[in-house]
Design goal:
The complex is a heterodimer of chains A (398) and B (112). In chain A, helix 3 packs parallel to helix 4. With 398 residues, chain A is α/β, with parallel strands linked by helices. Chain A is built from eleven helices and 15 strands. The radius of gyration of chain A is 32 Å and the shape is elongated. Chain B is 69% helix and 0% strand. In chain B, helix 1 packs across helix 2, helix 4 runs antiparallel to helix 5 and helix 5 runs antiparallel to helix 6. In chain B, 36% of the residues are buried. The chains are: A alpha/beta (398), B mainly alpha (112).
Chain lengths: 398, 112
């Protein structure tokens, strides 16, 4: 709350067609130190004065010539810039109809005639306090929204760019379709793709516990870590996960953790090698569109145990084959009434061509996305067609 | 039989003196005793019923603020009537005059 001195700098507009009433209220306000007090003798003048002085509070008589206090109230409430201004209506004790109509017109509070100093000053002080607090909160909210928007842009810029995805496709013949949508302004999901060597592509998907700012900061930390400690060509996904786990355990506060899957697609051997840290299933299809492998979630999440061990699994991925990895936001029961489960995704994968499967997932996320989503949603769908490869396009893919 | 209210609410006037000070209150009373209120009251009988109600309502508000109880009561009584007659008009002007006299004596000691 602001200091009382801050309130006395407030601009107050008194609207009353009776000069004596205006002067009495001004005199009562002066006893508390309110200096910026303006007067209007009717509704039309009140609207002019409001425009001119932008008051923090209006004391308004209801019955005035030309434009009544009720009309003034209604007009102010329709004005977007002043719709929140406190309007304290001054009415007579016996006018019960006036009181109800005043609130209906948009009055904030009532003061009865005869006006009593203590009551007037208390109400003015309370409503000015609310007004300043609301304004402070709105300024804070605007600033935070602006900062979150900038942070969101920065986080989005860490995701693989269309240019990079195009370069991966050009160099390896690997088509990557990634989706990442945070549940709030910022999310704790992130995915990554890069060339590992001349014929292998590295992909990863991480989901930090929680969402919002702290989870987003973890993704930025991980991105920086992976930038400084890239997976080495002779390193396996399980060893790389173990390395990341050790670093995360040392960095992350207690109670925070992440699930992650690291995948290496070998376009020469036509294999997919992956290691998972409690990440949801990985679904693999062959070139004919048959679902050939569904990897169950395994091992501990990252950041729980320093020496956690992860397992690398290699499965065939022939030319024309594809796979789908996702974060558990897709399975969130609050997402919609017909949310996916691991079992229903399995069934869908086994009974559908991968392209149809992907279209269905995208349509599902497009439907749920405009609503409040309870968790971040991320997936990576990768298909391999090595005849598309043009190995000379190297730089942007790494 | 209804007991008429006192001409002035002495407690209210005392409170006003404490709230705004004697000097400011005397200025306010000078404004109240000026002829601003006489003109509309003198033309009450010629006004439309709506205008009559507004005139009485306005006077009642300022009278309440200044502790003029008899004037508040007179305004309330006349507000109930469908139409203000010249007799009503004369009555309310008389109460306004009495109120002025009372205030002069009670607050300003007859100086205003």
């Amino acid at each position: 709350m602001q200091s009382p001195h801050y309130y006395t700098n407030a601009r107050i507009l008194i609207v009353d067609d009776d000069r004596v009433n205006r002067h009495l209220i001004r005199a009562l306000l002066a006893t508390k130190g309110y200096r910026q007090v303006f007067e209007a003798a009717d509704g039309i003048e009140a609207l002019e004065m409001k425009k001119q002085h932008n008051p923090n509070l209006i004391l308004l008589d209801l019955h005035m010539p030309h434009l009544s206090g009720f009309d003034v109230c209604r007009i102010i409430r329709q004005d977007h810039d002043h719709e929140d201004i406190p309007i304290l209506v001054i009415t007579q004790m016996d006018s019960t109809q006036d009181r109800a109509a005043a609130f209906e017109a948009g009055a904030t509070d009532l003061i009865t005639k005869p006006v009593h100093k203590d009551e007037l000053l208390a109400r003015v002080s309370i409503h000015l306090g609310h007004q300043f607090l609301t304004q402070d909160l709105m300024r804070y909210q605007k600033r935070v929204a602006h900062e979150l928007r900038r942070a969101y842009d920065i986080q989005r810029s860490l995701l693989p760019s269309p240019h990079k995805i195009q370069a991966i496709h050009g160099r390896y013949g690997v088509m990557v379709d990634g989706y990442c949508h945070p549940s709030t302004e910022l999310g704790g999901d992130m995915w990554h793709v890069s060339g590992l060597d001349g014929h292998r592509v590295l992909m990863s998907l991480v989901d930090f516990s929680g969402h919002g700012v702290h989870a987003a900061l973890h993704t930025v930390w991980l991105q920086a870590y992976m930038g400084h400690n890239p997976m080495l060509p002779d390193e396996n996904p399980d060893a790389y996960l173990a390395k990341i786990n050790k670093a995360l355990k040392a960095y992350m506060p207690l109670g925070h953790f992440a699930t992650m899957i690291v995948m290496v697609l070998d376009t020469q051997q036509h294999t997919l090698t992956y290691a998972s840290a409690a990440h949801p299933q990985l679904i693999v299809w062959d070139a004919e569109g048959h679902c050939t492998h569904i990897a169950e979630s395994q091992s501990l999440p990252l950041g729980i145990v320093e020496d956690a061990v992860f397992e690398a699994v290699t499965v065939p991925l022939p030319d024309g084959g594809c796979f789908f990895a996702y974060s558990d936001g897709l399975l969130h029961p609050d997402l919609c009434e017909t949310a996916f489960t691991e079992a229903s995704l399995n069934t869908l994968a086994q009974q559908s061509a991968p392209e149809f499967f992907l279209d269905l997932i995208k349509a599902y996320l497009n439907i749920t996305r405009p609503n409040h989503v309870p968790d971040d949603n991320t997936f990576v769908f990768v298909s391999c067609r090595t005849e598309d490869a043009q190995p000379q396009t190297q730089a942007a893919a790494s | 039989m209804t007991i008429p209210p006192p001409l002035l609410d002495s407690a209210r006037l005392q409170t006003l003196i404490q709230d705004v000070g004697q000097d400011v209150l005397i200025k306010l009373i000078q404004e109240f005793l000026a002829t601003d209120y006489e003109t509309p009251l003198k033309t009450l009988a010629t006004q439309s019923p709506q205008q009559q109600r507004e005139t009485l309502h306005g006077l009642k508000g300022v009278a309440a603020n200044m502790g003029a109880m008899a004037l508040v009561d007179a305004c309330c009584q006349l507000s109930q009537r469908p139409r203000i007659t010249p007799e009503d008009q004369a009555y309310i002007l008389r109460v306004l005059g009495d109120t002025r006299g009372g205030i002069r004596l009670q607050v300003t000691g007859g100086c205003v």
